[in-house]
């Protein structure tokens, strides 16, 4: 079983959900919903061996809990189709009202259950291919640790931060470039010094042939 728990919510209010597993993840789910910002976003939270993926758009949140082995492509494809089906519902026509909890459970709960079963048994390959191309352009999906949320409240620690990784790589590159420049400078300086010494030796040899090793013959002639 790859997909375990899926839901549609408005803010922190769950409108409809389906749970395929036996373990209760309501505490983790409610914590994640309370931390989702009001702006449109896509994010993945990690907790133990499970991943909580969500899409927040238009005031509604589409969330699915999946096993780590499911990766991220298939769950986000599931969420995209879940969002598409929910937008066809009358409840999705307005994002300003405040519906009661589980107000869509009777009408949309079976849709979530059917979709979870479909993706757990035979996910559509054409949808996965299309979603793979779309997700390749998505840059704002990050991974956060749910354990940090549950134990430290408002403090959320990023597990994957692409910006920090790029900054670290740039710093390492600059340090490497400085090291190479120093090495090349010392190498050129040594070559120049050696060339000067060789030139002086050659000049002395040439003069010694005419003036003698002590340069006394040239002095005597003059």
What attributes does this structure have?
single chain, about 220 residues, alpha+beta, 7-stranded mixed β-sheet, 7 helices, about 50% helix
Textual characterization of the structure:
The protein is an alpha+beta fold and 222 residues long. 52% of the residues lie in helices and 20% in strands. It contains seven helices and seven strands, in the order ββαβββαααβαβαα. A seven-stranded mixed β-sheet has the order 2-1-5-4-3-6-7, sandwiched between helices. Strand 4 (50-57) and strand 5 form a beta hairpin. It starts with a strand and ends with a helix. Residues 153-162 have low confidence and may be disordered.
- Biggest sheet strand order reads 2-1-5-4-3-6-7
Q: Please give the share of residues in helix.
A: 40-55%
Mean residue pLDDT: 79
Task: Calculate Rg over CA atoms.
Answer: 34 Å
Please indicate the percent range of residues in DSSP E strands (runs of 2 or more). 15-25%
Number of discrete helical segments: 7
Shape: rod-shaped
Layout of helices and strands, plus pairs?
Layout: E1 3-10, E2 13-19, H1 26-35, E3 41-47, E4 50-57, E5 60-67, H2 73-86, H3 105-121, H4 125-135, E6 142-145, H5 146-152, E7 158-160, H6 162-211, H7 216-221
Helix pairs in contact: 2-3, 2-4
């Amino acid at each position: 079983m790859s997909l375990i728990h899926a839901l549609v919510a408005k803010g922190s209010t769950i409108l409809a959900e389906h749970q395929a597993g036996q373990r209760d993840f309501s505490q983790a789910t409610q914590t994640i919903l309370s931390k989702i910002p009001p702006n449109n976003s896509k994010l993945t939270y990690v907790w133990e061996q499970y991943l909580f993926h969500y899409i927040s758009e238009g005031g509604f949140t589409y969330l699915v809990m999946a096993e780590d082995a499911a990766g991220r492509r298939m769950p986000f494809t599931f969420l995209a189709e879940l969002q598409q089906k929910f937008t066809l519902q009358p409840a999705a026509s307005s994002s300003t009202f405040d519906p009661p909890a589980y107000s869509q459970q009777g009408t949309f709960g079976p849709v979530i259950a059917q979709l979870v079963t479909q993706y757990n048994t035979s996910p559509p390959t054409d949808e996965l291919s299309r979603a793979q191309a779309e997700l390749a352009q998505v840059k704002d999906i990050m991974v956060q640790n749910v354990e940090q949320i549950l134990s430290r409240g408002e403090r959320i620690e990023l597990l994957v931060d692409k910006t920090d990784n790029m900054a670290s790589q740039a710093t390492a590159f600059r340090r490497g470039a400085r090291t190479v420049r120093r090495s090349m400078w010392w190498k050129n300086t040594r070559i120049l010094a050696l060339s000067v010494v060789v030139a002086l030796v050659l000049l002395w040899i040439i003069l010694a042939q005419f003036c003698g090793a002590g340069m006394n013959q040239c002095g005597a002639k003059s």
